[in-house]
Amino acid sequence: MHTGGEPVRIVISGYPPVLGNTILEKRIYARETLDHLRKILIFEPRGHYDMYGALLVEPSLPGADLAVLFLHNEGYSTMCGHAVIALGRYAVDHGIVAAVEPITTVNIECPCGMVIASVAVEAGRAGAVSFESVPAFMFAAGQQVDLPGISSVAFDIAYGGAFYAIADCHQFGLKFGRSRVRDFVDAATGLTKAAKHAVTLSHPEHAELAFLYGTILTDGGDGRADNPTKNICVFADAEVDRSPTGSGVTARLAAMHAKGDCLPGEERTFESIAGSRFTGKVLRTTLAGDHPAIIASVSGRAFYTGTAEFTLEEDDLLGRGFLLR
Question: Does residue 209 have a pLDDT over 90?
Fold first, then answer.
């Protein structure tokens, strides 16, 4: 499937059991024991540098309809909004959850926690999907680092199921629609590297969640009314999200709310580097440990692109996966 142009390869069979009592234990097991399968599925010749996958595993949380591990070029994410949107529709279309009109609820266990997807259903067909996030919060506002060729770059770090550095692209001399994607990638990657050294992350629930996943460069807008705010998310090993990034939109909403720039119920529109859009809003406030936090709603559409079955011949060394950039 794809959501907003971003691929999501849903793995439904062929994996050995992924062991662990919790989803985070399953994530560790997959990373330490089954990583060769991630490379076969995500890397060339079957995938590419920016391929993304979702591996369905046995749920461990009560009430979960399905559980998922997210696969990318570097490893395993803790949250992926575009994949959740796709999985919500997939779960309804494939009878994992019985379709109920006009809205079907799908509870999806992610490494960051339970994410609730609401799937619009009309005449038995699933359509747009909204998800309710885990608690999202501003972690570090108004940070600054020096980067080569730039005296100082200001950024925030916010959590939306994964941690992101968020910065205005104009600080790098970049402009959406005029600057090369490559230049956005280089700028974002440089900020991610610097921010990892400058800010020590922590998460109130689990140390496995406390890592900087990537950087979101924005146009500085707030997405009000008919003026979508553009952003590009560069995550993992310089992977570029074609969608507006569901967990990234969640993090942006958390940062905007913390600064007083987005009140509960105010809908905002976010546009990706490919031109696709998600809408989002703050549903309510909450706490994440000692952090003031929000629960966000993010909405988008996912579409099917095909069905595949992959094989690996014993003497095919390149078939085990490689990457070119």
Answer: yes
What are the DSSP calls for 68-137, one per residue? Answer: EEEE-SSSEES--HHHHHHHHHHHHHTTSS---SSEEEEEEEETTEEEEEEEEEETTEEEEEEEEPSPBE
- State how many domains the chain has: 2
CB 132 within 8 A of CB 295: yes
Considering the domain architecture, whether residues 98 and 160 belong to the same structural domain is answered as no
Residue where a domain terminates, one of 105, 132, 159: 132
Query: Which residues, including other chains, have CB under 8 Å from residue 101's CB and lie 6 or more apart?
Result: 121, 122, 124
- pLDDT for 151 beyond 90: no
Percent pLDDT > 90 in the chain is: 97
Q: Which of 202, 223, 232 is nearest to 298 (CA)?
A: 223
- Which residues have a catalytic role annotated? 80
**Pair (160, 103) in one structural domain:** no
Residue 150 sits in a domain whose CATH number is 3.10.310.10
Tokens at residue 311, please? Answer: 């094989």
- Assess whether the previous peptide bond of 7 is cis (omega < 30° from 0): no
Q: How confident is the model at residue 234 (pLDDT cuts 50, 70, 90)?
A: very high
pTM over 0.70: yes
Please check whether residue 57 lies inside any domain of the structure. yes
